[in-house]
Amino acid sequence: MKRLLVMLLPALLLIGCGQKESEPDKEVSGGMENQEVVLTVEPIQEPEQIKFNMSLENQGENAVDFQFSTGQKFELVVYDSEHKERYRYSKDKMFTQAFQNLTLEPGETYDFSDEWKEVPEPGTYEVKVTFKGKAEHLKQIQAVQQFEVK
């Protein structure tokens, strides 16, 4: 009987710890207004690269606290017209595994950028940016933008 209790106790603790109540998430995506945060991405073609200017704006009335589990603040992926991946920001990079925080006050903007050190052949491309910060009551924040390379 004692053995059975010793074996069941850890399992019961794991089951009890794994359950948590949560409020429904708000979906947040770039280019669309939402209740709190907007992510935008602006691709700019330069002679030897494509530059991506990104901006995360808190349009709500309360501060939003983001937590990061690594040094990577965002992921950016470029797809061609056949939805083939052509560029990924994190490819061949390593990021620290340190917890970091970012607080955006109401009306405050966090700006960041990336450069794709290549100008691909002319055509239509799509860039998808995912902000890696997690905030209470917010789903993962993304922006998707089509752009033309001339």
Give an account of the 3D structure.
With 150 residues, this protein is mainly β. The chain has a single domain, classed as Immunoglobulin-like (Sandwich), CATH 2.60.40.2360. Helix content is 11%, strand content 43%. The chain is built from one helix and nine strands. It has one helix at 2-18; strands at residues 37-45, 50-58, 64-68, 74-79, 85-88, 100-104, 109-116, 123-131, 141-149. The strands form three sheets. The protein has a four-stranded antiparallel β-sheet, with no helix packed on it. β4 and β5 (85-88) form a beta hairpin. It starts with a helix and ends with a strand.
The helix/strand series, from N terminus to C terminus, equals HEEEEEEEEE
Structural class: mainly beta
| Spans of at least 5 consecutive residues with low confidence | 4-34
CATH architecture: Sandwich
Within the CATH hierarchy, at the fold level, what is the topology?
Immunoglobulin-like
Short summary:
The chain is mainly beta.
How are the SSEs ordered, and which strands pair?
Blueprint: H1 2-18, E1 37-45, E2 50-58, E3 64-68, E4 74-79, E5 85-88, E6 100-104, E7 109-116, E8 123-131, E9 141-149
Give short descriptive properties of this protein.
150 residues, mainly beta, Immunoglobulin-like, four-stranded antiparallel sheet, three-stranded antiparallel sheet, 1 helix, 9 strands, 11% helix, 43% strand, globular, Intracellular proteinase inhibitor BsuPI, Intracell_prot_inh_BsuPI, IPI
